[in-house]
Each structure stands twice: as structure tokens, then as C-alpha cells.
Design brief:
Distance between the termini: 17 Å
Largest sheet: 6 strands, antiparallel, barrel
Number of strands: 7
Shape: globular
Order of helices and strands: EEEEEEEHH
Strand order of the largest sheet: 2-3-4-7-6-5
């Protein structure tokens, strides 16, 4: 055994488009993306995109497993495409409503008005989620 935790995985056999926005950790700006879900776990999805994307705080246009928030943990080039992993994070109704309103108002080329508040809300939700989950698989 290689020391990594094993968790339930499922390959996605059909094309599942995913539309999402990211607040990049490095620039604190909003960008919108489209990808395809290629694999899913209990609290994560692996996606493939045509363009590189930077790690950050993710807002999913459509819910995955009942949730809209998450973290893009890593991204890497694989052939002509890019693979990435999004850790799904449950958000409270208030936080989800707050982020949804900011995402609705934002434009891809305009810096966010209050990214620190959005990031703090995601971090709080993530901290609460990791105390109950205990699962982890950060490998590509």
C-alpha cells in the first residue's frame, strides 16, 4: 500500500459539462470557466478544461451533490487539456446566498468588490466540513 487513503471513486461515462467561476487565490479576481467532469468522489470532482485554471475558491453554476461551493485544489496540463480537482464544500444558506449574489453581479474582467469576505466564508465552511469528513485524496 502506498500510504494514501482510499476513498470511493466513480468514473463518469457520459459528458457532464460543468460551468463554474473561480476567485483566484493569487489575484483575488473572478473568472468564469467551462469543464467536463471526468471522475467523482464523495466530496470532490476531477474535471478537464481546455484552458489552464488557477487554484482558488469555486462557485458552481449547478449543484454537485447538493452543493455549489468548493476549492480548486490543483490543476495540471495533461496532453492538450488541463485536469483539475475541486473539493466540494457545503455552505450555509446565508453564505451561499451571499456568494450567489456577488457571482451574479460580477463580470469576468472586473476585480471582486469584497473577495476577502467571500474567501473567509468559504474557509469557515471548509473548516467545518473537514472536522466531519476525515477523507482526503490530493493525488492527481
Amino acid at each position: 500500500m502506498d500510504g494514501r487513503r482510499q476513498e470511493e471513486r466513480s468514473n463518469v461515462n457520459e459528458q457532464n459539462e460543468l460551468f463554474f467561476g473561480i476567485i483566484s487565490r493569487s489575484e483575488l479576481t473572478w473568472s468564469e470557466h467551462k469543464g467536463t467532469i471526468v471522475e467523482a468522489g464523495d466530496d470532490w470532482v476531477r474535471i478537464e478544461t481546455r484552458e489552464p485554471i488557477k487554484p482558488g475558491y469555486v462557485w458552481l453554476r449547478n449543484r454537485i451533490k447538493g452543493n455549489r461551493g468548493g476549492f480548486l485544489e490543483w490543476s495540471m496540463q495533461l496532453g492538450g487539456a488541463y485536469r483539475a480537482r475541486i473539493r466540494i464544500v457545503p455552505l450555509t444558506w446565508n453564505v451561499e446566498h451571499y456568494v450567489r449574489e456577488r457571482a451574479r453581479r460580477s463580470l469576468a474582467h472586473i476585480p471582486l468588490r469584497d473577495p476577502a469576505e467571500i474567501i473567509a466564508a468559504h474557509m469557515d465552511s471548509f473548516a467545518r466540513g473537514t472536522r466531519t469528513s476525515g477523507k482526503d485524496d490530493n493525488s492527481p
